[in-house]
């Protein structure tokens, strides 16, 4: 190869065009954009600030940039590092230099303390290169080792545009936030073909590892995008809510007041009747600021970023509209994960409790609801960011604890005037305490007795009684909540917490 | 043929649709009583109720089929 200027430009151009035309066409038919166009969409001003290793493997035939683009750019004016697979080059598979490029950009992100974005669209390891890219010190395992090391230091986001197969599936697994494009994105350890060969299972890719499945059943995906454009918008929006790294706070964001602020009218008189918590969140959050994480997974609990007067807040809220807002193993898991992200990146937490407790029964016990619930409590309890807990209508049993109950050092516990806190609800409690007595009573007296005892119980768990005992710090009218939160979060911003003298917790899993 | 299943374990408190009724996607078709809460069950897709599989007052498990729709 002769290094004249003309040759240089020609080589560079060939590299920037990616793989063969037929692969561009087949991608395009599936609604998949070329890797450099994706980066142009994602980054400010449609441009990469600089690229490293563009000429990687340029001596080999047909491996432009060795199938991955790595470099830096900006999002909302802040620097980010990125790696982006080029699926027109050997299906985005990883060779030795692909892996080395990814490792190096991660090292750059660590040194510069900037977020790292992974635009994944890869068939996995290039088997022909396996000795050079798989097992060694700077093999693919190092990518995951770096991700784990970087976790909680800098935001790591995965945009999944195509497959992330086998070991490659661990890239999204170690990211804070995973966006999957419907129909095109997939995650799996073994392909359907492999599953059929090895375990005899016949299954479609979509069923086994598709975007919808991962965003609603497995919980591996956080955001289901209808197409690549939506995925890019979601990634940019997520980045709005994140600081550059764990040593900074998220920037405040321009806001408008919520167009509808009436919370009172949303709350049904009947404690046990459902209402839509999502609507309530919208009425206390800045207009259009709600950004949900794992919307389709364990929807009986909502996890979302909002802003209140431009300040980024992480919300954990029970959704009475779905499964009565009861906590399940998956919802506990979802909450734990979300709180960890908020705590890592200095995002205060708001708990909106309307919870009858953790689910009971054989099914959930076998699913390990105790250890999953413990995860939620552990993540909540050890979160040192400001935490405000609001009892909307009720917090029963361990539900109270999980939603940052008074014993777990929230900065305050607020309650609406109709709220109740108890080990269990009135119906269950009266049955539990007076079961024998009720059985002894003549049939015609039972009803009246039960009603009387329920009324007594209700009075005992009344919020004014609880406030009198100082279990509740303040009783707030629903329509006052937004302003109360604004005032309190502003003050709590300067919170400091001393850490216990130990190396680490042994966290429940 | 599609089915509407119970989202969680509980007591089938109210069955709101009978054989021959049309249902819209997202419409409430039954209400469970579980954990002392009313749990509405919604149809995922529209159709006509072909069969009602459970009776009011019955215990249903998570995933049990409540309706078959066409």
From TrEMBL, chain A:
<dbReference type="InterPro" id="IPR011763">
    <property type="entry name" value="COA_CT_C"/>
</dbReference>
<feature type="domain" description="CoA carboxyltransferase C-terminal">
    <location>
        <begin position="258"/>
        <end position="499"/>
    </location>
</feature>
<dbReference type="InterPro" id="IPR034733">
    <property type="entry name" value="AcCoA_carboxyl_beta"/>
</dbReference>
<dbReference type="Pfam" id="PF01039">
    <property type="entry name" value="Carboxyl_trans"/>
</dbReference>
<dbReference type="InterPro" id="IPR045190">
    <property type="entry name" value="MCCB/AccD1-like"/>
</dbReference>
<feature type="domain" description="CoA carboxyltransferase N-terminal">
    <location>
        <begin position="1"/>
        <end position="254"/>
    </location>
</feature>
<protein>
    <submittedName>
        <fullName>Acetyl-CoA carboxylase carboxyltransferase component</fullName>
    </submittedName>
</protein>
<dbReference type="InterPro" id="IPR029045">
    <property type="entry name" value="ClpP/crotonase-like_dom_sf"/>
</dbReference>
<dbReference type="InterPro" id="IPR011762">
    <property type="entry name" value="COA_CT_N"/>
</dbReference>
UniProtKB/TrEMBL annotation, chain B:
<keyword id="KW-0092">Biotin</keyword>
<dbReference type="InterPro" id="IPR000089">
    <property type="entry name" value="Biotin_lipoyl"/>
</dbReference>
<feature type="domain" description="Lipoyl-binding">
    <location>
        <begin position="1"/>
        <end position="70"/>
    </location>
</feature>
<dbReference type="InterPro" id="IPR011053">
    <property type="entry name" value="Single_hybrid_motif"/>
</dbReference>
<protein>
    <submittedName>
        <fullName>Acetyl-CoA carboxylase biotin carboxyl carrier protein</fullName>
    </submittedName>
</protein>
<dbReference type="Pfam" id="PF00364">
    <property type="entry name" value="Biotin_lipoyl"/>
</dbReference>
<dbReference type="InterPro" id="IPR050709">
    <property type="entry name" value="Biotin_Carboxyl_Carrier/Decarb"/>
</dbReference>
